[in-house]
Amino acid sequence: MTVRALVVDDSATMRGLVSAMLRRDPEIEVIGIAASPIEARAMIRELDPDVVTLDVEMPGMDGLSFLDKIMRLRPTPVVMVSSLTQEGAETTLRALEIGAVDYHPKPICDVGLTIGADDGALAAKVKQAAGCRGRLQHPDHHHRVVADFRWNGRLIALAASTGGVEAIGTLLADFPANCPPTLIVQHMPTNFTRMFASRLDGRVAPCVVEAQDDMPLTQGHVYIAPGGTAHLTVKGDRSPVCRLVEAPPMTGHRPSADMLFRSLAHLTPDRLVGVILTGMGEDGAEGLERLHRRGIPTIAQDAATALIYGMPRAAAERGAAAEVLPLGRIARRLLALCAC
Length: 340
What we know:
Helices cover 36% and strands 20% of the residues. The protein is of the alpha/beta class. It has two domains: 3-130, Rossmann fold (3-Layer(aba) Sandwich), CATH 3.40.50.2300; 155-337, Methylesterase CheB, C-terminal domain (Rossmann fold, 3-Layer(aba) Sandwich), CATH 3.40.50. The strands form three sheets. Strands 8-9-7-6-12-13-14 form a seven-stranded parallel beta sheet, sandwiched between helices. A five-stranded parallel beta sheet has the order 2-1-3-4-5, sandwiched between helices. Helix 9 (257-264) runs parallel beside helix 10. The longest helix is centred in the N-terminal third of the chain and has 13 residues, at 86-98. The protein is elongated, with a radius of gyration of 20 Å. It starts with a strand and ends with a helix. Belongs to the CheB family.
């Protein structure tokens, strides 16, 4: 089935580059090119594209407000095209929170270099995003009150990738300020994870930080694995600490959920819960299986609520998930498992 894409960017050069990258894939048809949100809105109504690629930063135009309107009025899979600078990272994270499916680095302004360096990555993201149509929902950031939570000593280790920004925000909105120590591997570039932790910290009750080496795991804290530079692991049992391990990517990822889960497999079943949320690929499935074999409770997000049912599917197919739950029920279940 051919994926019909609409390219939106205020730069004529960038519109040409993005279009060229997509047209290299025979399974993608670029059905339109728009220079502004106003022009794009009319084309979305007329052409009903499967996917929209949208420039993050459009001078003089509010691209994020446009994305918000898309998600509210006519939910359509959107892949943001962003510069991986600090400013670009913040805007991209806001876009993912609003409901964009994925993002891709802005191509170099040289057609030959761009096509060679991209190696079909943007096209792959566009095709993956097309499969999300019908699953898109405007995110609910309502904070729910959890009363009288008493921790039994269990840690939470969680993995996510594509769709994870929104899913993690939804899940943590249900956590109390004194939640169990929670470790999260979310696949992101280096510039993104600190900003991601900071944005979550301002929205949810627990304290959310980017993990640092030798940082102790304490109640009421959520630890985001740093992007791109090292793997987040855990050392110790009764007084566990974060350890950042400089090692090659595992299954194409650094940080890797498999690496985190493996580092926790020595714990007894009363000390840990493992979770896999939405994401592309298989990272975390093997590690979650190790935890499950040890009798440690394990949970995977279900197909109906996962934006990308890749990582949870891989875990479920290996028999690694003791429970498969919709996103809206996972936080409550985690807190029940971690309560006295």
